[in-house]
Amino acid sequence: MKTPLDQIDLAIVENLQKNARLSNKELAHRVQLSPSSCLERVRRLNASGVFRGFHAEVDPDALGLSLQAMITVRLRRHSRRDVVAFRAHLLALPEVLAVFHVGGSYDFVVHVAVKDSNHLRDLALDSFTARPEVGQMETHFIFEHTRSMTLPIKTEER
Q1: Which residues contact 121 (CB under 8 A, 6 or more apart)?
Q2: 97-145, pLDDT tens digit by residue?
C-alpha cells in the first residue's frame, strides 16, 4: 500500500501537473518549503510511482499526422492469452497513442494518429482485422481532441 499524500505532497503534485517545467526553487516557493526539502519530496514522489513521467506534448499535425481516430475492437475470445497478446501488439504500433482495455460491448478502445485516410485503412487492415484475436472493429474519426492534463486533487482547503 502506498503512503498517503499529505497537503504539501498534494500541492507539489498539483503544481507540477500544471507546469512540469517549474524550477525546484519556484516549486518550493509555491508550496512554502525550502528548496532542499521540496527536492527531497519530489524525489520521494517519483520513487513511489506517484509521477509516471514528465512529457512534452507534441502536436500530431506538426509530425504530419493529421488524422486521429478511436478504434473499437471486440475480441473473438476473452482468454487472458488473447488479451495480453493483442494489448502487446497494439503497444508496439507507432500509430497508437493510447490503449484502453474496457468492459461493455467492446474489449479495447484504441486512440491512433495517422497521416491520412489511406494510412488509417492500411493500419486497420494490416494491424487490426488481420489479427487472429480480432472478431470485430469499428473506426471513429476524431474531429476535435482536447484533454485535461491534470487529475482532480482533493485538498482540505477546497
Answers
A1: none
A2: 999 999 999 999 999 999 999 999 999 999 999 999 999 999 999 999 8
Residue 27 to residue 34: CA distance in whole angstroms = 10
Which residue ranges make up each domain of the chain?
7-47, 60-142
- The correct answer on CATH 1.10.10.10 for the domain covering 7-47 is yes
CATH (residue range 60-142): 3.30.70.920
Q: State yes or no: pLDDT of 157 exceeds 70.
A: no
